[in-house]
Amino acid sequence: MIRASRNLLHYALVCALGFGAPLAVAASNNNAAPPTGAPIKAVLTAPPLVPPATNRNAPANVVVDLEVIEKEMRLADGVTYNFWTFGGTVPGSFIRVRQGDTVEFNLKNAHDSHMPHNIDLHAVSGQGGGAEATFTLPGHKTKFTFKALNPGLYVYHCAMPPVGMHIANGMYGLILVEPPEGLPKVDKEYYVMQGDFYTEGKHGDAGLQPFSLEKAIDEHPTYVVFNGSEGALTGDHALTAKAGETIRMYVGNGGPNLVSSFHVIGEIFDKVYTEGGSKYQENVQTTLIPAGGSAIVEFKADVPGNFVLVDHSIFRTFHKGTLGILKVEGEKNPTIYTGQQSNEEYAPAAGKGGH
User: Fold this and answer.
1) Between the chain's N and C termini, which has fewer beta carbons within 10 Å?
2) What are the start-end ranges of the H helices in the chain?
3) According to the UniProt record, where is the region Disordered (predicted)?
4) pLDDT tens by residue, 118-161
């Protein structure tokens, strides 16, 4: 009862304070321009894919149709979980709009859902980020409209109480608000999002695993994974590129509890738009991504190889699941990286040999 009261109190604070909405920034003249042309239906993609750039020089009326689907899916080999999803995937569908767009947002909740849901988009300047406007019962649909005032990469999530449980069950995703001039062109774009999961059973216990509220409150996740499951970005699902290509990753952290120390082993990020904002830092090894936050990382794949995506809180990687692969193919370049050149026993220094 105490925990339920705390959840309700938290939800009230979320709604009252508009938590999650981006900090107010003066709107540019471009923001104020009225949308033009016929409404455009937003292209939504499942991870790790990203919708194409908007390639528009003026704001538009954009329609987003997103459905909440509760479904059992794979969490790890032999392990399943009843995920609550935006669009049928974890993370939810990637949404891409342009600064100044007027977005008509339609949220459906599938008829076979067991819970009411809503959505708080951090890209929205308005109470609850749209959460109150989208309270949606199973079998119902809701609609609200917002203007995309601020460019950036934003998290969205369900904000129904208990908020943490809805997020822990997979209800999060990313929305990109492009600046009017767009982002610089790159060769590949990918969508990666970390999340922590709390099951009654231990890591690796087979079968359908129920959610553990106790573990979630204690912040002791059973799994910490990229894109909703162990192995979502390995093997046949590995990300791919060619040597010489420039790669942009839109990286989010749904949480609900843990901060991510995102790192790609064997690469240096040429640019990191920290916390999904407009400014970037250069030559970064590891970037912190808060729960409910994001970052845009860019780098050139200089040489071929398998480059490992990790949360550098490293026990999570090798014992809880935050491991992905970027497979880069192409010609070797020994001027940048040789690989192993020798492996031999060395002679001990005189007078210090042997034990």
Assistant:
1) C
2) 2-17, 29-32, 163-168, 213-218, 315-319
3) 336-355
4) 999 999 999 999 999 999 999 999 999 999 999 999 999 999 99
